[in-house]
């Protein structure tokens, strides 16, 4: 029997890698995308197969986590074996500018989806994209037993989603898990997250297209892993017998300065000549240090990350240098942009 999965946030970094992974495992994959005035499917265009083709196994549907009735309709119609809730307003700094919208999408959106699962009466397994931001001000190392101390509207919204996912597991016997994932990056990372902002700048500075790179706090420490390995971990969490929560992390911390050193150094540049400070990139409350202990996932899921922050910097710089050489066609060569037929 072909398994069916539904991914919210399929157009994001993780959604695109997860769709690839599930398709490679033979799944039929359904994704929810938001209606926009321009195409927002660049990360998944290379997966496109004309839906009229009998080989098509990827299907997109318009929807939004702010629209609960639409979610009920879609869940009843698709009847997925697995639901991955990856959609969110996922930018921590932006959550201070748009706290209410962040609460609505990143927090309340989860209860709308869980209610849609319940009301549609389907039997499914549910993955919630929880975050190391939950730990916030609690010092590392952080694992599943570390107390939470959120430091942003984003983290507070994710905290609600974490607990409501756990509550639905206990209240309704739903197979629901929280993946508490530490930062994970890739050449598909959004351009305003610090790693990608840095690696894009390295490519542009090296090509003579940019002189300065404006950043905020360079002292914070993050545990950066490689996104394709993390979506594999998400999938594994839904394949075991018992639903429980897991941390995914490399266990190695790097400061922003370390990442600058690795990225600029990879092409023989000295970052100190180019990086300038702009206070607009500071957060009213910062998360100083996140370094995860993923022993539980390693032992129970056999999940082992292989790419650390320094290796990641090299992967991302190489991809951005190449992307610049064929501007407009980022991470995939030779993709003819399809016109998705949704309606
Ligand atoms: P992205 O920001 O790249 O992707 C977010 C996705 O959510 C996009 O597909 C976006 O659609 C969609 N989305 C946003 N708002 C809505 C909405 N109201 N309704 C439906 N879809 C919406 O995030 P990542 O792929 O990096 O992360 C995936 C998830 O994991 C997120 O929930 C994030 O908070 C969480 N997370 C991420 C970590 C990381 O390091 N990457 C670490 C821990 C947790 P569109 O393309 O239209 O904007
Ligand atoms: P984060 O990622 O907040 O950890 O959330 P981000 O890359 O935005 O920031 C990491 C650290 O870098 C510092 N920083 C800057 N950040 C940005 N974006 N831009 C800058 O110019 C800049 N200068 C310094 C930040 O202050 C911070 O300390 C990510 C998201 O993917 C969340 O959705 C996810 O939950 C967490 O990772 C785990």
From TrEMBL:
Residues covered by the NAD(P)-binding domain: 6-316
Catalytic reaction list: GDP-alpha-D-mannose = GDP-4-dehydro-alpha-D-rhamnose + H2O
UniProt key word Electron transport: no
Domain of life: Bacteria
E.C. number: 4.2.1.47
Keywords (A to Z) from UniProt: Lyase, NADP
Cofactors (names): NADP(+)
PANTHER family: GDP-MANNOSE 4,6 DEHYDRATASE, GDP-MANNOSE 4,6-DEHYDRATASE
Similarity comment: family membership: Belongs to the NAD(P)-dependent epimerase/dehydratase family. GDP-mannose 4,6-dehydratase subfamily.
Biological function: Catalyzes the conversion of GDP-D-mannose to GDP-4-dehydro-6-deoxy-D-mannose.
Protein's name in the database: GDP-mannose 4,6-dehydratase
Taxonomic source organism: Microbacterium suwonense
